[in-house]
DNA sequence: GCAAGGTC
């Protein structure tokens, strides 16, 4: 009797073997693939790894046309270039399977893990997946793994496997067919062979970049005035700003300056507050990618590659994680003792080792498969790391050290100066206790604006009061790190794929610019063509729909094959229509000459149907505004233009929503629940989105108006 | 030669 345990990856196979073995497991290899042999309770056990997906979907016949739905599972190295390493792993599993009579899947307990286990059993081991058992664990500790071993599930989770398989097939159907359709369209119009692509994640990602591009192209700067007061105290000059930060009317600005100049100016109020700033949370991959971008300018892809290298050298933990929590049983002291051997970390590590209790801060996000990224305590040898690797290592180590340190204390000072009835605000801020900034201040900067002491009622020596003309600025272009964040917020892609998908958009020629991403005319046209003909593929709703289907399959409420069949029927219709218009679509895609600057109206015109809808909608909103709702309810400030966010009603549907008072100059809107009374709260959440209180019969709750808010469900309590 | 998802 020999049991073969299949792990998701080599590193996990090793951990499982060491956890389950009585004594030391024996490490052996087949080719380059390591596996482990040992006994437990008299039972002979082998643990062998997959390396992620060993099998992938591929068309049965090698034709280049579309639609194509006839696909099958093949080894990854057959379907994709550069995956030859997988060959040895499949071979090793096949060999070991011959020696085994019992099979246990021990991949990550999620849909992808279930697919990895299922396909490995079926296609590498040549066994019936329904004969295999399942080890189910959420941490790779000895305790958890032993518990999982003694409480084996009698089968793998077929609901999960089916949901995962459906996800693979649906992504393939939509992505490959529409990519072929786009490629074919441009070929027919231009005669040129040029690979175009789209998919469930690429589509919406390119779409939000295009939306931003259009906002920038259509942006009309409006002038505004800022009034400043230059004053002197103890021989030093300071600048206070008028309480209303933006004045849209020049005459009003002039008047305020003239009146304020008359004086006398005195200190009306001094407000000094202390604020605790807690250390930042442990790194999940997305947060690390953003921080490395802001600290070193590394692209998300580069950061993942560097983190992978550090992980392979054993210096830091597994990087593809969405957790912001450290393992509960991690030996913090021993890691700190090791880090103390490096002179740059010695003082911080020693300070922490002097503490009685080491309690790191943790973030909200969690990941069943892996903890947050932390230094293992293994140290790099001198000269072992490249400059980039050393930078990232330093970032990870300092973040780790910061987690255990005291909060920083900031003093925030606000001096209100009154001059002839007009108020100016002089703001100061300084760090009065460094806390964790000692170790991490290198990577995060707080403003230091130190003010002298002011007394309420004291006269102020004003040197100058002036108005400055400014212009509103268009919204900023996305950086690669900001794209990853937006994808995270939208819930598209995964921590391991987002960076790669962004690279794909670059390589297709849809976007350009290393730090400030600009959509190329081609990228604009691709979104136009898709929006007009296959709006689903540029909408995040496709992901939502897939997720719903997968939930149903997992719960046994839907049948995998039925779901696949429905998607196929839907696609057949879409692709047929696309094919009929292929030449025209190709011509649109070719219109990539000129400045690339088009108005949204022009784009809408080109895109056809979109135009009609949006114009009537626009009119409706306009009428609603013109009609003048009686003093609309203000629920907050517009995060984009500073206007008022007010409750509005769609004329046609009567439904309420929140919009910016500067419409149509500003297009910020938020959806609103249709029930209950709206009560403003003065609070904001996601990127300045207002939080409102909803009062219904018998209950009330606060809610962030950003639908993608992570606390949405929680806030609803 | 196209997707998105694992992992090296």
From TrEMBL:
Query: Is Manganese among this UniProt entry's keywords?
Result: no
Q: Which GO terms describe its biological process?
A: DNA recombination; DNA repair; DNA topological change
The Swiss-Prot or TrEMBL record lists the needed cofactor(s) as: Mg(2+)
From the Swiss-Prot or TrEMBL record, what is one GO molecular function term? zinc ion binding
Q: Active site at which residues?
A: 318 (o-(5'-phospho-dna)-tyrosine intermediate)
Q: Which residues form the Topo IA-type catalytic domain?
A: 157-575
Please give the residue ranges the record annotates as the region Disordered: 361-382
Fetch the Pfam families from UniProt: Topoisom_bac, Toprim, Zn_ribbon_Top1
Q: Which UniProt keywords apply?
A: DNA-binding, Isomerase, Magnesium, Metal-binding, Repeat, Topoisomerase, Zinc, Zinc-finger
User: In this chain's numbering, which residues are marked as the site (Interaction with DNA)?
Assistant: 53, 167, 171, 320, 508
Q: Does the keyword Glycoprotein apply?
A: no
Read off the Gene3D superfamilies from this record: 3.40.50.140, Bacterial Topoisomerase I, domain 1, Topoisomerase I, domain 2, Topoisomerase I, domain 3, Topoisomerase I, domain 4
Write down the EC number: 5.6.2.1
Write out the catalysed reaction.
ATP-independent breakage of single-stranded DNA, followed by passage and rejoining
Q: Name one GO cellular component term.
A: chromosome
Q: Where is this region: Interaction with DNA?
A: 197-202
- Tell me where in this chain the Toprim domain is found: 2-142
> At the top level of its lineage, which domain of life is listed?
Archaea
Physiological role: Releases the supercoiling and torsional tension of DNA, which is introduced during the DNA replication and transcription, by transiently cleaving and rejoining one strand of the DNA duplex. Introduces a single-strand break via transesterification at a target site in duplex DNA. The scissile phosphodiester is attacked by the catalytic tyrosine of the enzyme, resulting in the formation of a DNA-(5'-phosphotyrosyl)-enzyme intermediate and the expulsion of a 3'-OH DNA strand. The free DNA strand then undergoes passage around the unbroken strand, thus removing DNA supercoils.
Q: How does it assemble?
A: Monomer.
Family membership = Belongs to the type IA topoisomerase family.
Q: What is this protein called?
A: DNA topoisomerase 1
